[in-house]
């Protein structure tokens, strides 16, 4: 088999695939943990307590308004500075590992974006739905779970798919803190051989991943919205994502 | 945060304030130099993607798919190493002149291609948002194709595209930080230098994040003002 | 304003010196991030052993030299692309590199060493004792290759610059770092380096470390290569080399 491959792939193909697997893990874990954190901060954002709303707004805007790579450096090198403290707290085993640091940074980052998506989706559900739920005598939190969330989920679907794709692309920065993801393995192969074509093979893998995600997501969306009429589907697509809002909002 | 940490931010030979400020200047310079590429490139790409001719439509669509899908960091490496190698190889055929693509130029080209691809989506959406009646009205008035574009379509297009373009500016501002990986002395790279010399990574990366955040906030305020201004006469819509 | 902007964005171009000029023009490529061999002082001047040796060689060859800095990862491609004419940057002469560039005779040869945090439990550096630890090295260096060959069971992390592995060794994220003994000692003797100590110096492996550190020129530039070799022999002979050696080190870095 390997004699049919370009020489660089024969030598580094397995490494690139290992890196690809690390990239998938980085993205999967961060998106998964991100959903949990984003749900919590959306809850805080819609809370009646002003300080919870503020805290959540500051977190969301801070992480959406600054570069992911700077956040990663803050967590990797910044938290690493206090390794003595983490050892006492028995947390160093976690922060010591570059992969964990990357997952932590990516989770905090994607959760902020996801929270904004969730909030927008909840607010897009017409007021009448809240009123209808309470007219049926449903308690507020049941009405929220059974009436609002299912409708909001459909509004959130498209921007959420975009966020996964953004995370795939963003995950490449993990390679700058010695995580051997797809780009990390690629850089290693390049520095060993100065063979530039290795970047093209890595680029092709990223493109395949992103395009696959995009197509799968389109199918998913078509399936979940098949009960909607074309006009409301159009409306959903047109909804622009909100620009970064000042903290005070 | 005690005094000794804050004193690290002083200006002059002892402090790092002036170094970080010089980094902010490079960061803003790169973003400002790249934005027009994204804007004009995005508009042209959108026109090509709407074109009847497949010879324009297909390459434009491939271009957008590739640069929207690739991680910005790998695009940056490909431009930085690849373009240098390509230009040197081409020029070595004719002369011994050495050509290097500077990290600033590589950043401009890579981030410009990415911004243009995303901006073309924004423009396509905005084209779709202009009511058909507007074009028909302009035709009925006997305006030429060019005048139709300039007097009727463009003003409405810009208003519709502004929120999306504003978003792209914020994304671009953050993406400039990636160019520090190929040694552009921007804010993040200079922060790293300060960290190397002082061994205070938490403090310096935190300060860098606050500076990026301040730049994002100021941009948002300006964009909000622009949007309000360009939506005059559309109150309530 | 306009000029600095153009300078920042435009491609850098430099013409090759014309052969007819009376004084040879040479562009020397170096890294500027590898103290005490080549680095920047606080006034942004290039300093170090490599730099002084380069200046002495240029003087000996009656050449006018200018220095160009380049990140380590891209230094060989840049030489081949004619960004400069020679690399004087503590580059070890290895068979892989020898295939794509030509090397002069060595101008120094020092062994690799391993640095560990002061409270480390490690007492020796063998394949067994290092088996379960994490070792840091600068990528694309003979030291990274040395670790791969001699410590196959050790997890190796590669960093773009020495600065990054120093931060991670200080925090304890990696258990040890491998680099040139002189580079590590220089760091550990400074205030920055009070986290760590030298565990041991490693024996030179000629298959990996090669005959030592040499000057790289483009393939086929035999005339330049011979001039460099003659100049190295001359400064070894006339005491200039020893003066530079003693300025930086209290032992002989030339080796046997």
What does this structure look like?
The complex is a heterotrimer of chains A (249), B (237) and C (256). By secondary structure, chain A is an all-alpha fold. Chain A contains 11 helices and no strands. Chain A has helices at 7-45, 50-64, 68-80, 83-88, 92-95, 98-124, 127-135, 140-170, 182-193, 197-224, 230-238. In chain A, α1 (7-45) packs antiparallel against α9, α3 (68-80) crosses α6 (98-124) and α6 packs across α8. Chain B is mainly α and 237 residues long. Helices cover 78% and strands 1% of the residues of chain B. Chain B has 9 helices and 1 strand, in the order ααααβααααα. Chain C is globular, with a radius of gyration of 19 Å. In chain C, the strands form 3 sheets. In chain C, strands 6-2-7-14-8 form a 5-stranded mixed β-sheet. Chain C has a 5-stranded mixed β-sheet with strand order 11-10-12-9-13, sandwiched between helices. Chain C has a 3-stranded antiparallel β-sheet with strand order 3-4-5. Residues 1-20 of chain C have low confidence and may be disordered. Classes of the chains: A mainly alpha (249), B mainly alpha (237), C alpha/beta (256). Chains A and B meet through α3, α8, α9 and α10 of A and α3, α4, α7, α8 and α9 of B. β1 (98-100) of chain B pairs antiparallel with β1 (12-14) of chain C, so a sheet runs across the interface. Chain C: Belongs to the bacterial solute-binding protein 3 family. Chain C: GO terms for molecular function: ligand-gated monoatomic ion channel activity. Chain C: Keywords: Signal.
Quote the distance from N terminus to C terminus of chain B: 48 Å
Highest CATH level, the class of chain B: Mainly Alpha
Query: Got a strand count of chain B?
Result: 1
Mean pLDDT of chain C: 88
Q: Which structural class fits the helix and strand makeup of chain C?
A: alpha/beta
Averaged pLDDT of chain B: 89
Main location (chain B): membrane
Organism (chain B): Acuticoccus mangrovi
GO molecular function (chain B): transmembrane transporter activity
Protein name (chain B): ABC transporter permease subunit
Give a brief outline of the structure.
The complex is a heterotrimer of chains A (249), B (237) and C (256). Chain B has 237 residues and is mostly helical. Chain B has nine helices and one strand, in the order ααααβααααα.
């Amino acid at each position: 088999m390997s004699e049919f491959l370009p020489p660089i792939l024969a030598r580094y193909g397995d490494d690139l695939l290992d890196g690809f697997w690390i990239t998938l893990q980085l993205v999967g874990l961060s998106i998964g943990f991100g959903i949990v954190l984003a749900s919590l901060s959306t809850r805080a954002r819609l809370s009646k307590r002003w300080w919870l709303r503020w805290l959540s707004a500051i977190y969301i805007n801070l992480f959406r308004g600054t570069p992911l790579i700077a956040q990663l450096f803050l967590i990797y090198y910044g938290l690493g500075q206090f390794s003595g403290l983490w050892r006492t707290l028995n947390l160093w085993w976690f922060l010591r590992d570059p992969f964990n640091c990357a997952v932590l940074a990516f989770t905090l980052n994607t959760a902020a974006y996801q929270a904004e998506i969730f909030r927008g989706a909840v607010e897009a559900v017409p007021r009448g739905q809240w009123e209808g739920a309470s007219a049926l005598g449903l308690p507020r939190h049941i009405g929220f779970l059974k009436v609002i969330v299912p409708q909001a989920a459909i509004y959130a679907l498209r921007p959420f798919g975009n966020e996964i794709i953004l995370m795939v692309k963003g995950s490449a920065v993990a390679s700058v803190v010695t995580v051997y993801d797809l780009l990390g393995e690629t850089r290693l192969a390049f520095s060993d051989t100065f063979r530039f074509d290795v970047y093209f093979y890595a680029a092709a893998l990223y493109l395949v991943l992103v395009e696959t995600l995009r197509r799968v997501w389109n199918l998913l969306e078509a399936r979940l919205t098949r009960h909607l009429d074309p006009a409301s589907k159009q409306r959903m697509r047109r909804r622009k994502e909100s620009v970064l809002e000042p903290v005070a909002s | 945060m005690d005094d000794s940490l804050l004193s690290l931010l002083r200006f002059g030979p002892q402090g790092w304030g002036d170094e970080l400020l010089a980094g902010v200047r490079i960061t803003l310079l790169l973003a400002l130099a790249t934005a027009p590429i994204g804007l004009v490139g995005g508009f042209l790409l959108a026109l090509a993607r709407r074109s009847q001719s497949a010879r324009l439509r297909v390459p434009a669509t491939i271009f957008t798919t590739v640069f929207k899908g690739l991680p910005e960091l790998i695009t940056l490496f490909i431009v930085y190493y690849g373009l240098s190698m390509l230009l040197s190889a081409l020029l070595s055929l004719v002369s011994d002149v050495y050509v290097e693509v500077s990290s600033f130029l590589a950043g401009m080209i890579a981030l410009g291609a990415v911004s243009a691809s995303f901006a073309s989506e924004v423009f396509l959406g905005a084209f779709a948002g202009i009511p058909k009646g507007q074009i028909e009205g302009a035709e009925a008035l006997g305006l030429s194709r060019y005048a139709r574009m300039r007097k009727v379509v463009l003003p409405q297009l810009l208003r519709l595209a502004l929120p999306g373009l504003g978003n792209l500016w914020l994304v671009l501002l953050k993406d400039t930080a990636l160019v520090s990986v190929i040694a552009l002395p921007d804010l993040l790279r200079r922060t790293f230098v300060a960290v190397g010399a002082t061994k205070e990574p938490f403090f310096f990366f935190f300060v860098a994040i606050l500076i990026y955040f301040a730049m994002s906030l100021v941009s948002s305020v300006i964009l909000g003002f622009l949007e309000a201004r360009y939506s005059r006469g559309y109150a309530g819509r | 304003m306009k000029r600095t902007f153009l300078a920042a964005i435009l491609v850098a171009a430099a013409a090759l010196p014309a052969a007819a000029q009376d004084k040879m023009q040479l562009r020397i490529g170096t890294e500027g991030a590898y103290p005490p061999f080549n680095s920047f002082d606080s006034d942004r001047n290039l300093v170090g052993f490599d730099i002084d040796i380069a200046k002495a060689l240029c003087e000996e060859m009656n050449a006018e030299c200018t220095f160009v800095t380049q990140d380590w990862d891209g230094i060989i491609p840049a030489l081949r692309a004619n960004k400069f004419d020679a690399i004087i940057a503590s580059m070890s002469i290895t068979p892989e590199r020898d295939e794509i560039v030509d090397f002069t005779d060595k101008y120094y040869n020092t062994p690799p060493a391993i640095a560990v945090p002061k409270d480390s439990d490690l007492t020796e550096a063998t394949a067994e004792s290092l088996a379960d630890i994490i070792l840091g090295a600068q990528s694309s260096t003979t030291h990274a290759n040395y670790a791969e060959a001699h410590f196959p069971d050790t997890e190796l992390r590669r960093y773009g610059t020495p600065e990054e592995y120093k931060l991670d060794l200080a925090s304890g994220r990696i258990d040890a770092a491998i680099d040139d003994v002189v580079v590590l000692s220089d760091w550990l003797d400074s205030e920055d380096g009070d986290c760590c100590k030298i565990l041991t110096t490693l024996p030179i492996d000629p298959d990996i470390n090669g005959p030592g550190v040499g000057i790289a020129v483009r393939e086929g530039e035999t005339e330049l290569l011979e001039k460099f070799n003659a100049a190295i022999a001359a400064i070894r002979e006339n005491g200039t080399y020893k003066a530079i050696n003693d300025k930086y080190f209290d032992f002989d870095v030339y080796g046997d």
